[in-house]
Design goal:
Oligomer: single chain
Helix content: 40-55%
Largest sheet: 5 strands, mixed
Strand order of the largest sheet: 5-6-1-7-8
Strand content: 15-25%
Distance between the termini: 63 Å
Shape: globular
């Protein structure tokens, strides 16, 4: 049987790297990117890591010291990061068939390399890919290659942490002693699927590093924990147990949610925020060619004690499964009237589409208003064409308010260089004149 080969490619310090593409003055400097509402650190440059700035640490706790140390801080610029991610995956699709790709996150992707091993030098092929991505979109990447997805994930970790690999670690090409040495130096918490909580429990079984886990008794640990840990052990030994997921499989539910920049008590503003999230969820619904038959809405109230918020939710079943934005928006907004209470402050709203059906396979019954459904389908097609031609903001469906108080806090956001005409990257006239004089 032919040996399976998998790769994991990801962008180094993705959010920070995206900021540096359009602001090269950040190169070589400590940079951090914050989470929603400028809450916690979610991306750090290597220089920021050297200052012992931890992942997920609240910004307010380190702000003063970090700024004094020269740290550059940015709010999450999701429009920019999403567009750079799209370009990243487009390059991957030029190198590999889409059936051999499994997007794992905005900056990570598993790749099935087995079909390419016969006709290509895989190591050189992947090094060329790293070079092309850096040349075309300016993002530095690392690639880990192994006989299983877990090995590929671990190899990617080695490629990042050890400069000797030069951004690519090909585990099958390592001798056994070198591989075992790397396993012994890698804490078990760094193994994909283990994490800190389970790693602490594994210490009771004298399992401290990846080597200990690889040669542990998988049957005993499966009884103590779950079959998942036994699967991880087999993967570490090189037995492929986790296949690539099919990215074409649609979601079973679609959720959109985000905390407000500050607590809100005005119903119209909350409805405007809900409309924004309905439109986000609707975009994913139509991209997956699905229909929705149930709409859930949850409203989170601010309370003075931990966990500092409590939720109230409500769900509405629709008369028939639909992808009509007008119907979905109306169903969601009606639920705010049920959930909202006067003199209460709210910190978050979310909408979730469930009871999803494939639009191509869905059959309407005789009791449904087929003529109206067809008219609405034509209307939604026209709406989509207008947004594609004139921009997503040219026309809006749902509740409108002039207040943007519901939007999240982004005091340090960089321009949306690639997605907003008003914020496109420009060359300063004085800088251009200097260049011309030289």
């Amino acid at each position: 049987m032919k040996q399976q080969l998998f790769a994991l490619i990801d962008i180094n310090n993705c959010y920070v790297s995206c900021e540096r593409v359009f602001n090269p003055q950040l190169n070589g400097k400590p940079v951090v990117v914050l989470s929603n509402n400028d809450g916690c650190v979610v991306s750090r440059s290597n220089e920021a890591k050297a200052l012992n700035i931890g992942m997920a640490i609240p910004w307010y706790e380190i702000e003063k010291e970090a700024l004094q140390a020269g740290v550059k801080v940015f709010s999450s610029n999701y429009a920019l990061y999403g567009d750079m991610s799209r370009r990243f995956f487009l390059i991957l699709q030029q190198y590999f068939h889409t059936d051999d790709l499994e997007p794992y996150s905005i900056d990570e992707c598993f790749i099935r390399l087995t079909p390419y091993a016969k006709n290509r030098d895989l190591e050189q092929y992947c090094r060329d890919l790293i070079s092309i991505i850096n040349q075309w979109i300016g993002l530095p990447c690392c690639i880990g290659i192994g006989a299983t997805k877990t090995q590929a994930k671990l190899a990617n970790h080695f490629a990042k942490k050890r400069t000797g690999f030069n951004s690519l670690c090909f585990l099958p090409n390592l001798d056994l002693c070198s591989y075992e040495s790397l396993l012994q130096e890698t804490p078990v918490a760094d193994v994909w699927g283990i994490g800190r909580k389970i790693s602490k429990q594994l210490q009771d079984y004298e399992i401290y590093n990846s080597y200990d886990l690889t040669f542990a008794n998988e049957h005993h640990l499966a009884r103590q924990f779950s079959v998942l840990i036994a699967r991880t052990i087999r993967e570490l030994k090189g037995q492929s147990c986790i296949a690539l997921d099919d990215p074409a499989i649609p979601s079973k539910r679609i959720l959109s949610s985000r905390s407000f920049a500050s607590a809100l008590s005005e119903k119209p503003i909350i409805k405007q925020a809900l409309t924004f999230h309905v439109n986000r969820a609707y975009k994913r619904l139509t991209a997956q060619q699905q229909l929705c038959a149930c709409v859930h809405v949850a409203l989170y109230e601010k309370i003075p004690h931990p966990p500092y918020k409590k939720s109230a939710s409500h769900a509405v079943g629709l008369e028939y499964a639909t992808d009509d934005l007008l119907v979905l928006s109306h169903a969601a907004l009606k639920q705010i009237d049920v959930l909202f209470k006067e003199n209460k402050k709210y910190v978050k709203v979310e909408v979730m589409f469930t009871a999803l059906h494939s639009k191509q396979q869905h059959i309407h019954d005789l009791w449904q208003p087929l003529d109206l459904i067809q008219q609405r389908d034509d209307l939604m097609k026209t709406l989509l064409e207008m947004k594609q031609r004139y921009g997503s903001d040219c026309i809006q469906v749902g509740y409108h308010s002039t207040s943007l108080a519901w939007q999240m806090k982004q005091h340090h956001r960089s321009p949306r260089y690639t997605t907003c005409w008003q914020e496109l990257l420009t060359i300063d006239d004085s800088a251009l004149a200097v260049t011309q004089n030289k």
